[in-house]
Amino acid sequence: MKFGYIPLALSLLLGACAGQDTRPPSPATTATACTCAPAETLPPLQIPDAERYTPPSAKPGEAPKGTEYGLLHPAEWGSLPGFDQDNLLEAWGALKQSCSTLKNHAAWHAACEAVAQSAASSNEAIRALLVERFNPYQVINPDGSDTGLITGYYEPLLNGSRTRSERYRYPLYSRPDDLIDIELGTIYPELASHRLRGKLNGNRLIPYYSRGEIDITPSPLAGKELLWVDDIVDLFFLQIQGSGIIRLENGDSLHVGYADQNGQRYQSIGRVLIEQGELTADKASMQGIKEWGRRNPDKLRNLLNSNPSYVFFRELPNSLSGPFGALGVPIAAERSLAVDPRYIPLGAPVFLSTTFPNSNRPLQRLMLAQDTGGAIKGAVRADLFWGTGLDAGRRAGAMKQNGSRMWVLLPKDWVANGGK
User: Fold this and answer.
1) CA 354 to the chain's CA centroid
2) Domains annotated on the chain, with CATH
3) How far apart are CA 114 and CA 116, in angstroms?
4) 42, 88, 214, 223: least buried by Cβ within 10 Å?
């Protein structure tokens, strides 16, 4: 649910598409993703036939066995490295969360009913259920290759207050009443994943206030403050990730999540620092940007304002087990992925084969495709959710693993029901 989340490893170099209903890019080394309001999750886009990959095993003139997602190649369970060793019990809760939504689709109903009725008492029992109810499909890129990039994102933890003070003087704003949000797909079906945001000036729709126009005194959004925090850079990264936890002065904590965005195009401040010669690419991580800000407080505000994109928040129930993803369910640390829903069905189990950050140690485990992201574009491309807090942020910022492979697990009823 990113504006809800952003790949921290690529956000430096990429920018999110201004009109898309997805997270913005993260400033660490890519551009989360914006996950938008879960209840408004859009169906996956269909891949044009010209972009579909025909597996080389298919005979000339014969359509390959597959799915409506044309870049999924039927595979064998034995081709999933580490599947037999994965601790599937750790993914069981996330799988049940996905099924709470997917069970309403005919192709998923039987498999998700089996998940709901299973005792899941052991890894072996879960593994047997997956093999019985699902078929694996390897994700293939449009050029026929089968490897890609995995980055990471996380949920920030900030210090805040419900009232403004000298310490807590940086506001989180709730969604403004004058923000107009138009779903273009209601007018042009081919633009189903795009939105237009702005405000009315007479009978004309004009761009909404930019970051620089919002972060002034007095602000045009005065009166819409949801909370106040003590660090402007942490607030900036909270907007990039799209959700987080605010620790209040009395010791209580509350969850905040993405409510909307001002419609302005995302600009990576990491890229700005690189282009200005302030930081080298290897130093333009979240930590590097924070350190630069501490050394250059007089330049910090101008740097932040170079990204006109601005995210608005809402308070979420404290009972949530994690932040909401684009699927509309809480995501799970180290078991949820943000994916491109044009290539991978949102909610589907995905077996991931990659490596840990800054390491060659294999990371091979069952994940759930429960989120989307502005920088997550392509077939073999995903953003791994590392959890909440500073340590998760460090791991997310270091995650930039090329050569990764992915397999989608689809119910055996999928083809028979047309994937609907």
Assistant:
1) 18
2) 154-316 (2.40.240.50)
3) 5
4) 223
Count of all residues that appear for the chain in the document: 420
Cα separation, 218 vs 206, whole angstroms: 21
Query: pLDDT tens-digit profile of 48-77?
Result: 222 222 222 333 333 333 345 778 999 999
Classified as helix, coil or strand, 158 is strand
Provide DSSP, 212-274: HHHSSSS-TTTT-EEEEES-HHHHHHHHHH-EEEEEETTS-EEEEEEEEE--PPP--HHHHHH
pLDDT tens figures, 339-357: 999 999 999 999 999 999 9
Which residues have C-beta within 8 Å of that of residue 29, sequence separation ≥ 6?
7, 8, 9, 10, 11, 12, 13, 151, 270, 284, 285, 397, 400
Torsion of CA 378, 49, 44, 130, to 10 degrees: -80
Tokens matching residue 35? 């996950």
Residue type, position 51, single letter:
E
Which is nearest to 58 in space by CA: 132, 140, 148? 140
